[in-house]
């Protein structure tokens, strides 16, 4: 099914599958997709699903506008695969069902099992801690991105990309690709997964991220 992948300066902050006939995005909590940022209007834009995979976007008279591939939209517009929607400093990539499908049921079950074990706080799990990355540089400095998925990727494709995986004994980072090396506390990150510690600093190209662990 169609999906939206939202990022800020290359850091993925939200991944949404468009399952409803109408999905709203805005700053107010009643929206289906909530971006708690002042550049986003209370009710900013809406996505309409027609049939299986046709998606239309409409700006809801927002203050700062909605842009597709750099152009402000003036009316309801059909989205094409890999269109980039810009709202303030948020970048939202639209993908059709034919490119990336929703994870298989057994994959979701595995992730749920992992979360269930962690929630119990058993020895060897990180269930009593909430993990996040804090952006240390750029226009989004200070933004905190929670790590809520089993595997999350960060960075800019072709430049520097890493994955952070949630395992029973903690969070691990590994380099996935790109022309520039990624570093962890000044040391190059390779393809082999490395355990992250509280306040470790990741550097991806010109972006620095601090890994945090906090009590839930």
TrEMBL record:
Supply the InterPro entries for this chain: Cell_Proc_Reg/RNA_Proc, FHA_dom, SMAD_FHA_dom_sf
Q: Which Gene3D superfamilies match?
A: 2.60.200.20
Q: Where is the FHA domain?
A: 23-73
UniProt cross-references to CDD domains, sorted A to Z: FHA
Q: Write down what this protein is called.
A: FHA domain-containing protein
Species: Polaromonas aquatica
At the highest ranks, the source species' classification is:
Bacteria, Pseudomonadati, Pseudomonadota, Betaproteobacteria, Burkholderiales
């Amino acid at each position: 099914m169609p999906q939206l992948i939202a990022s800020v300066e290359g850091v993925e902050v939200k991944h949404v599958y468009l399952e409803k006939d109408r999905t709203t995005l805005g700053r107010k909590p009643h929206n289906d997709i909530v971006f708690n940022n002042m550049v986003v209007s209370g009710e900013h834009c809406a996505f309409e699903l027609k049939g299986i995979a046709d998606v239309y976007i409409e700006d809801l008279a927002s203050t700062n506008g909605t842009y597709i591939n750099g152009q402000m939209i003036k009316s309801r517009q059909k989205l094409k695969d890999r269109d980039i929607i810009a709202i303030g400093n948020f970048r939202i990539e639209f993908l059709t069902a034919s490119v990336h499908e929703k994870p298989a049921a057994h994959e979701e079950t595995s992730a749920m099992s992992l979360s269930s074990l962690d929630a119990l706080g058993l020895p060897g799990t990180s269930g009593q801690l909430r993990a996040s990355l804090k952006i240390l540089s750029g226009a989004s400095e200070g933004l905190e991105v929670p790590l809520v998925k089993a595997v999350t990727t960060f960075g800019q494709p072709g430049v520097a990309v890493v994955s952070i995986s949630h395992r029973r004994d903690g969070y691990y980072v590994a380099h996935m690709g790109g022309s520039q090396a990624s570093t962890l506390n000044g040391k190059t990150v390779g393809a082999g997964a490395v355990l992250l510690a509280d306040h470790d600093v990741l550097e991806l190209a010109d972006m620095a991220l601090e890994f945090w662990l906090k009590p839930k």
